[in-house]
Amino acid sequence: MDVRASDATTRINLQALIRLQADARALKLPSARPARARQAGLQRSAQRGRGMAFAEVRLYQPGDDIRSIDWRVTARRQAPHTKLYEEERERPVLLICDLGPTLFFASTGAFKQVRCAQLAAILAWLALMAGDQVGGIVFNGSTLNVQRPARRKKSVLRLLDTLASQQHTSIESASSETTLDTALAEARRVAHTGSRIFVISDFLGISDNTPSLLAALARHNSVSALRVVDPLELELPQSGRFAVAGTEGPVWFDASNSRFQQAWREKITHHEARLEECFRLSGVWASKVSTHESPAVSLKSILGPGGRIG
């Protein structure tokens, strides 16, 4: 067995996260929220931007660039009208990354903790390449680390280092002192209005308060939930005895036991319904990412035209 290959699927490695910059280059950059500009004129804006997008048409005013006149509207309304454009401007990107106890698991591919860190790393590199500020909140059940958004490569590297250093190396070392709700409450304090926020978690630890916390965060920001799941969590094998590591040693189950299968399906169905309701009530867009799939491949299927998510 290749120990290095095993480590790559169970441990978050800083150098591996840095190398994901190459994967980010292959993906389209996320689009920014437009900021209103008066018009497209001859002078270059002092504000950094990514281009101009059409906003609306209004009556021509002295000083408007004649090249922006909409001649069709002018002819129809018998009065000069000018096209207004929006300048696409960078905005803060905040990555909320869950490395809690429930993510110290995988039946295939890589641990959910590793996939969460990889997704966060690729999104961080994408945001930096787009000229956005990048920040993060990393929590692991025991601690919560906050890094405010900044537009520097050093900031991304510091976030990646936090992801690598905050991973638990065993279930025994994990606790449940910092939860998803704790991170969401902290994000509301840290996030600037208009931020693009990604919540990367398995969402097994949601509570009755989670929908309202997500909704409060989404009220003034664009929030996307990337839910990391393992195939075994959604459907058990039809037969065979399996062991799952626990804090008190391995837990064995018999997949051929019909009563066990039924109880498992009921539990999964209940959680899936509860999670769907959570996202519906909060108005947050969500997508599943499997542990067996490369995070770059997952993001490629999630990213829409121009790199817009959701």
UniProtKB/TrEMBL annotation:
PANTHER family: BLL2464 PROTEIN, DUF58 DOMAIN-CONTAINING PROTEIN. InterPro entries: DUF58, vWFA_dom_sf. Coiled coil: none annotated. Pfam families: DUF58 (PF01882). This is DUF58 domain-containing protein. Residues 56-273 form the DUF58 domain.
